[in-house]
Amino acid sequence: MASRKSSRATGGSPSPGSKRETKHGGSKNGKKEGLSGSSFFTWFMVIALLGVWTSVAVVWFELVDYEEVLAKAKDFRYNLSEVLQGKLGVYDADGDGDFDVEDAKVLLGLKERSVPAQPTSPESEETVQPAEKSYVEPDHKTADIELEEEIQSVLREALHSQPDADPMVDDVGAVESESYEIPALDDYVADLEERVSDPDTPGDSEIMPEDAMEHYKEDRVHEDYSEDQGIESKPTEDDVVIEPEESEKPVKPEDYSDDVQVGKSEKETEQDKTEKAKKKKKPKLLNKFDKTIKAELDAAEKLRKKGKVEEALKAFEALVNQYPQSPRARYGKAQSEDDLAEKMRSNEMLQQAINTYDEVVSLPNVPSDLIKLSLKREADRQQFLGRMRGSLVTLQKLVQLFPSETSFKNDLGVGYLLIGDNSNAKKVYEEVLSLAPNDGFAKVHYGFILKAENKIAESIPYLQEGLESGDPGTDDGRFYFHLGDALQRMGDKEAYKWYELGYQRGHFASVWQRSLYNVKGLKAQPWWTARETGYTELVKSLEKNWKLIRDEGLAVMDKKQSLFLPEDENLREKGDWSQFTLWQQGRKNENACKSVPKTCALLERFPEATGCRRGQIKYSIMHPGTHVWPHTGPTNCRLRMHLGLVIPKEGCRIRCAQENRDWEEGKVLIFDDSFEHEVWQDAESYRLIFIVDVWHPELTAQQRRTLPAI
Asked: What is the pLDDT of residues 66-87, one digit of tens each?
C-alpha cells in the first residue's frame, strides 16, 4: 500500500520507511510476540472500537496500515460527535485526548503507555489573553515560548517564500489526491508550517526593478483575477501591477542544500538545525467550544482539502449559521471563499474572503494563533488585490495585538515600503533591530532603505550581515543585487562574489545577466546583430532615417528642452543625463509625439517596438563628464537598440558584460540590457542617441500579448 502523509507528523510517529519494522516490534512473520500481555477484554474493546477486520489485519497480516485504520475510524466518527468528544476518552492511552490507532497499539502491547501532558486551564482556552501573554497556563511558559516561536516561523514562511517552491503547494488551495487522509483539525495546520508560495498562485510577489530602481514599491508585484477573464478591475487604492503568466517564472534555483552560507560556520549551521528541531509544536486553532464540534469541523475541512471547494464552503457556512461564535468555523469559511476565488478567478469572491478573515478576529475567545493566521492571510490577500493601504492597516493591527513579535513588525515595514513610505519603514526596522540586533530580515531591508537614500557605504554591512544570517525572507535576489551594486560603487571587487552566490542560489541567470524578471529558455548573449534579432526591417528603417530622427530631436532640444527629463534612477556616479520618452510600456505619449511627428509615424510600422510593454522608445542625451554605474535592466524579455545621432569623435563608450563598443552616427548597436552594462562620456561635447526597445525575438505572440508591463 502506498505510504500516506501521517496525520501525526509532529508527534513522533515512524517514517514510512520504518513502519514495517515498528508495527510488530521488528517481527515480520506474523507471530504473537507483542501480544503476550494482552487480555481478552482488551482485545474485545479494540475489536469493538476499530472493527474486527482492522484489528486482525493490522496485527496479524499487515494488510492495513495504521493510517488506513485511523482514516476509517474518522469516517465512522463524523456522525458520533458526542461519543467522540467524551465517551472514548477513557480509552485514551497516549494522552492526546482521543482514542486512535496509537491508543490501540498501547492496548495491544505494541507500544508503551505515555504519560499524558497536564491539561490547560479551561479559562485560558476560552479567553483571549493580552497580546504579550500566551493563552495557555503560566506553568507552561517554556511551551508557550516555543509555540510563539513556531507561529512566527509559520507566518514568516507564509509571506517570504523561496523561489524554488513547489508550485502546487499552498496553505489554502492545495487539492489533494483521492487517497488523501484528512488529519485531525489541530493537525491540519502542520501543512502551514511547510507552506511555500507559488509564483503562479495569487498573493505572491515577483521582483521588477527597472534598471536597479530602489523604490520597493516598484519592485513588488501583485495581481488580481480580472486579467484572466477580461473583467474590468474595480478601482483600488493603489496602481495595480499584474503578476506574470505561467510561462514566466523566476530562474529555478540550483540545489545548494549542502552549501554553507557565506559567513556562517558549521557550528552555527548545526545550531540552526537544533533551533528548527525545537520549533515543531503546532499552532492551536480551537477554543474550548470549537473542540466540542471538532468532528463537524473536520468533516468540512476534509472537503476543502480534497478540493471540493463549493461543498466545503456550504459546510462551513452551515456551521457558521449554526455556531455563529465559532472562530474556527468562520476561519474555514474564509479559507473556502479564498479557495473558491482562486478557482473562479473572482476578485469579488476574494474580497468576501478578506471580509470573513476580518470577522474571525472580531469574535470572542479567539485563540491567539488563529488571530495571527487570519490577519496574516487577510493582509496577504489585500496585497494581492493591490490594496496596499488596507493591507497596511491590517498589519498595524497585528503589531498592536502582538507587540513583542518582531516578525509582524518586519511585515509592517514591508507594508510601508509597498506604499513608498520609506521613512516609516526605516523607523520600524530601527525598532526591530533595537529589540533583535541579529534579525537578518530587518537588516537586509534596513540596508535596502539606506542604499535607496544613497548611503552606499552604510548600507553594505546591513545587507551583507542580513544575507549571511540565512533568516527567512533574506535569500532574495534584490538583496544580492543591491549588495553587489553597493560594493561595485565602493570599488570593492567582492561584488562579484555576491553576484556569483546569487547566481548559484538561482536568483540570476548568470553572474553578468542579473535581471530578476525573466522568461526561461530565451537566448542570452550581451551583443546582437540585426540578422540575429530578425528585426532587420526596423534596423534598416532607423539607419535610413537617422537624420530625420536626429533633426526632430535637436529641434526639441532647442525649443522645448524641458521635455528632456533628468535620469532619476540613481544610476549616475556623476554628470548630466536626460531623456525624452515617446513610448513607455507599450503606451504612446501623444503629447511627446506632437513634437516629433515624423519619428513617431516612422515607428508606428513596427509593433515589435511600439508594442513592447517591457520597454521604452526615447531620446537620450548625455553631457561630458558623465559616468553611469554598472547596472542591469529588469527583464530578459527585451533587447535594446541604440541609434547614434550626435556622437563625438572620441571619449564615449559603452560596455556590456566584458566587451566595450563605440557608437557611430547613423548606425544601430543592439545589446541585451539584462546583462551588466556601463557608460562613460568623457568627450568635449554632448552625445545624443535614440533608444528603441524591442521584444526578445524568441517570445511567442501569446507571450507578447499577455506578459505584464514593466
From this structure: 444 444 444 444 433 333 344 4
